[in-house]
Amino acid sequence: MADPKGFLTTPRRLPPRRPVAERVRDWHEVPAPGGLLPIISAQADRCMDCGIPFCHDGCPLGNLIPEWNDLVSRDDWLRASERLHATNNFPEFTGRLCPAPCESACVLAINQPAVTIKNVEVAIADRAWQSGYVTPRPPERLTGRTVAVIGSGPAGLAAAQQLTRAGHTVAVYERDDRAGGLLRYGIPEFKMEKRHLDRRLEQMRAEGTTFRTGVDVGTDVDAAELRTRYDAVVLAVGARAWRDLPVPGRELAGIHQAMEYLPMANRVREGDYPRPPISAEGKHVVIVGGGDTGADCLGTVLRQGAASVTQLDIHPRPGDERAEDEPWPTYPKIYRMSAAHEEARELAASPEADVDARVFSATTVRFEGAAPDAERSHGGVRALRLIGARTDGRSGPGTERVLRADLVLLALGFRGPERDSGLFDQLGVELDGRGTVARDASFTTSADGVFVAGDAGRGQSLIVWAIAEGRSAAAAVDRYLGGATTLPAPVGPADRPLTA
């Protein structure tokens, strides 16, 4: 503990963001370049070096947070990087994308603002890359065993890297044309520039992992035949079966799922399209869904130059403080403002803008459209009708409202893995009552030698849980192939976040 009084004398301080007027005109990351390093050592000094650091329990990876906080406060970036990478394969991803349940579980957060753990983490990761501390770690010898990993999201990448480093020959199959899963095509560039993903993939290739993109296992390749070619298979296909909104007018043109819209915006950044096939430019947009995906849509819509935008959340507005039934160290449902919401709020203050960032307690009852005319080959959505929901779920009297909308984006979450490829039937893998892949305590499915990691088995979750599951599934595969393992297994299939 470098400064025993740091948590008493130093207030919590976040790095500056680029001005809204600047960042909504480009796709670069929101934080101001170089804003972390001047403040991060003092922020790390706020760590209390608790006797029982509950941040370890808040984070499923078991990150050694007090250790690397202390090392950063002493400017020992090399050892901080070593301690960080000991538990996390991709800290530059989690430092940018994770909602930081570790901070909610910080002991200091009992009665003060928590340590800025997430910012310390990303500062270490970025400094490690800049200083050349992150290098390929190929295995010293090969085991002669082969593993196929299906899916290249965070769970698949973590499993593949761990198994490659253990000496197995690993091939990652990805149905998209580039590796990364939702890290590539679901996460907007302004949250994580894809250069961070690309350099990690290059590290993995240098270690010996092979990537086979553009291959949809179950459709392009028979999954059962693939199983015969490998000693083990890891399913890390995510939970991409989206929830729909079956209300009158759903069939109208101009209503799209978020995961139809966001990938196209990312593909423009990759150079695949000069303009996105689905664009918000000049349109009146309504986003249905108040979660992170909805916020990603909001930031993207603003950058594409929408005429107006409203985001609907069916839930009531959360409070600003922890509720009594959500005590520390659980992750509380409190009012949070993402960078996209900050952008929408500031733009709403402009007299030229028409932005209503968030409407809470809103239930969509139907979409209304225009009849086909000479300028349009078909009728499309023109309005969304909603009613206000009370806390008991019933509509309140006099709360009906009509929003103009010629682009509607549905960001309602996911039901589980997709079923249309034949992957699970070909492998003989069983699903559980939730529609996710059934598995035992060792991440093994009902098919011998077939394992599952990440959202495909857990259901929709956070990136830290995906990486933790990838590491744990890799340990299970390593044990299956060799009878024993030294790979870490931070979580079990039945482990869940801290809840009240």
Automatic annotation (TrEMBL):
Q: Where are the transmembrane segments?
A: none
Q: Which GO molecular function annotation, any one, does this entry have?
A: glutamate synthase (NADH) activity
Q: In which pathway does it act?
A: Amino-acid biosynthesis
* Organism superkingdom: Bacteria
Coiled-coil blocks: none
Q: Which residues does the UniProt record annotate as the domain 4Fe-4S ferredoxin-type?
A: 38-69
Tell me the keywords, alphabetical order.
Amino-acid biosynthesis, Glutamate biosynthesis, Oxidoreductase
| The protein's enzyme class | oxidoreductase
* EC numbers for this chain: 1.4.1.13, 1.4.1.14
* Pfam families tied to this protein: Fer4_20, Pyr_redox_2
Q: What is this protein called?
A: Glutamate synthase (NADPH/NADH) small chain
Q: Which organism is it from?
A: Streptomyces demainii
